[in-house]
Amino acid sequence: MAGTSSFFRLRRTFRPGFLLAPLIGLLLAFSARAGPAPEPDLRCPEYVARHAPLVWLHSDDPFKPSDLLTHIRHTTPTREDGKPIADLPPLDLDNLDLLNEIRDDGRGEDVFLASNDDPLTYPAWIRGEAPDAEGRIRGATPCVVVLVEKTPRDLDAFYFYFYSFNEGPNITQVLEPINRLVNDTKLDSGWHFGDHVGDWEHNMVRFRDGKPVGIYYSQHMGGSAYEWDDSKVSKVDDRPVVYSARGTHANYPAPGKTNTALSSQVHDAAIFDYCDEGQKWDPVLSAYFFRFDADSFTVTRLESPVPSPDDPPASANLTSLFYYAGRWGDAAFPDADPRQARVPKFGLKRFVPGPNGPRHKHLVRKGLKPNKTRKMSWKEWAVRVFMAWYPCCIRGWRRWVSLGVFVVVLSALVIGIVFGVRKYQTRKYRKLREEEIPLDDWVLEEEALLAPSDEDDDFDKPDKNKTR
């Protein structure tokens, strides 16, 4: 009975709650550790805006930064032949990439966003929007910022600027003496060449541990890169200052208005841009922000570090504008179109196709510049070589000095070749004289050379007359 009474006493003192409480605590701790990973930070780092470029638009540029959605609404998707693509829903920044299905249908053609108006009539929407005194463009979003995380410490921030029209250079922007080779009545009357609907330009700032270390400026078919502390990079409150060229919107680190102040504004060896401090534009005040994952080739929308009343709602995805792989402007006008023209001797067209968007701008780079460089045509190569020699060796009186030097060098080369050939022949003759050749061998060799062919055939045959 004593054992039974102690058993019941133990049952009365045992309470299941004493074990359940710590067990539940352990389960909660384990679930907290083994639960789903936290979502990635969808906020853009503050330093991306703190060191973002400030852009000076040219004072006389009629084509300002443009709202992306407005551009889409004033264009129609077409194929390269200009025929509209049928059966499409209304397009916006959330579904623009559905055009990729048409682009990849096996026909090998690009899709173009063709202007609904004649672009050379310059409708209001194609002229873009001017910034206010603060540098903000209100009611429009012409900038796209794409972050590329290279390593946990390194980040490339691409600041893309969009314009609905690019006006190329005219004859006044061609350096001498190339300008004398492209004389044409249409060009002389002020026509520009290289015009196109849609224009994407960009800067890229590289950060290491949140601090800027370098910057890239896009310029036409290429660009220039500088270390952050380079004296050529001017800054305001540790933000790089960018000068946007008139019409072409190429980006430069310094202004330039005349031929004598164009060391950094010359492109394609013989053409220069005009840059000045016209209107200040702060692009990140009106921008979309994204993070790009190179491994999966996906982008994620980020919260702006500088919120604006014009920001779209968080529910808007907007990534379609990045995935769209087609062109942001018209195809080139056919040669039969009266609006089209070619530059004599060089073949440059007045109106060229619109550009591709940010996804095509070499987002993954080793250095500040794109890894792959564009191949030059032989004409472009020849112009570059000629213009490299022109200032020092060809222009004005230098031409005659250079011609004289060329003649002297050529003459010396010819004399050297002649002297070398004669010296070689003399050595060969002396070698022959030094060889001991018996006189009888010379006579036999001479007789053999002069003998008729029938005798040569019977040279080793026995004399038939002697055998008889």
Automatic annotation (TrEMBL):
Chain ranges passing through the membrane: 400-421
InterPro entries hit by this protein: Vps62
Pfam families, A to Z: Vps62 (PF06101)
UniProt KW keywords: Membrane, Signal, Transmembrane, Transmembrane helix
Signal peptide range in chain numbering: 1-34
Keyword Transmembrane helix recorded: yes
Keyword Transmembrane helix annotated: yes
Protein name: Vacuolar protein sorting-associated protein 62
Species whose genome carries this gene: Colletotrichum sojae
